[in-house]
Design goal:
- The chain is about 30% helix and about 25% strand.
- By secondary structure, the chain is an alpha/beta fold.
């Protein structure tokens, strides 16, 4: 039997930004739910971080999530195993208070997983692991040691896997803890990666600039054959446009409506011509528009195809790596990542 796997949906993202949720909705309406119906899927495992802000929920975003996601699961008769992720948990040292138990009480079809447990899912003995914290770490390790199950689903922070393109996490739990298992599936990192046994499934859609050109979507897993099939989300939220006034290639600016747009200048000498180019984009009302202009790009010896526009976290990580300070660089990078995430959550 096939079951669907989805993770890190982050409802309430960017303080319930409506443009982002309309973008999310296209994925659910045109990709996710039609596939579940076509394949007659009756079981879904959500591998954590259903909601974005562990401190609270915007009422509009909660209404959106119920109407567009959870009511549809219920109406289709789909059982959802919802694992608590770190964004779902109010405290950092315990999962006791979490968004899944608190916000989704009315849904009898949702199996809420806030502590490590073993389940029989469609005839397959499985271990489901929520976010591992100081309170449940021993309980988690004891279950992993004793269980006869061969498949694990969780929201794990393991070392040696890609967090986002170009950054491999060097801290976290050692993956050897899962040596006895045949397959391990995890949420938490938004980029898909695997070592042949442990699979980070990635989230369904773009959320940050670092997600550009990184494939997103969801998976179907066959509990009998153990085959994992990926279904890509074709919709994008972030678009990079390379401007070269020597190239008259036209762009369809209408496709940039409600998107995050970044113009990267390769060649510009005629300011009026460039402003007309920008005005054409603005009239289609992008969600955000930034222009990257660097005098070095005018150097004929520079290969602009190799220039990478970095997001905030990439810049912070690079700064720490290049520093000469006597410090634990991994620890500092993790601290900066936590501070950055908390800053995004501030009202």
């Amino acid at each position: 039997m096939k079951i669907a796997l989805i993770t890190d949906t982050h409802y309430n993202f960017k303080k319930a930004n409506k443009s982002f949720h309309e973008y999310f909705e296209k994925f659910y309406n045109q990709i996710f739910f039609p596939k579940l119906i076509k394949e007659d899927i009756s079981t879904v495992i959500h591998l954590g971080d259903a909601f974005d802000n562990r401190k609270g929920i915007d009422y509009w975003a909660l209404k959106w999530a119920k109407e567009n996601i959870y009511d549809r699961f219920r109406d289709l008769g789909i059982t959802v195993y919802s694992i608590v992720g770190n964004h779902d948990a109010y405290y950092k040292n315990t999962n006791e208070v979490n968004s899944i138990d608190t916000l989704l009480q009315e849904y009898n079809n949702i199996v809420k997983v806030s502590s490590p447990k073993e389940f029989n899912i469609c005839g397959m003995r499985s271990v489901l692991l929520p976010w591992i914290c100081s309170e449940n770490e021993k309980e988690t390790l004891d279950l992993l040691s004793k269980t006869k199950a061969k498949v694990v689903f969780g929201h794990l922070e393991l070392s040696g896997f890609t967090v986002y393109p170009g950054y491999v996490h060097s801290d976290g739990m050692n993956k050897k803890v899962f040596d006895k298992f045949d397959l391990v599936f995890s949420g938490h990192y938004h980029t898909r990666s695997d070592d042949g046994k442990i699979y980070y499934l990635g989230n369904p859609y773009q959320m940050f600039w670092s997600d550009v050109n990184d494939k997103r979507g969801f998976h179907l897993f066959d509990t009998e054959t153990r085959d994992l099939e990926f279904f890509e989300n074709p919709f994008t939220m972030f678009e990079k446009i390379y401007y070269d006034e020597m190239n008259d290639e036209k762009i369809d600016a209408s496709k940039l409506k409600d998107k995050m747009v970044k113009i990267i200048i390769r060649k510009k000498s005629d300011q009026f011509k460039f402003e007309k180019f920008v005005d054409n984009i603005i009239r289609f009302d992008p969600l955000d528009l930034k222009v990257l202009e660097n005098i070095e790009l005018y150097d004929e010896n520079v290969n602009t195809d190799e220039i990478v526009v970095e997001d905030t976290l990439s810049i912070l990580d690079k700064y720490i790596e290049d520093s000469d300070f006597d410090l634990n660089k991994s620890m500092v990078k993790n601290l900066l990542r936590e501070l950055y995430k908390e800053a995004l959550e501030l009202e």
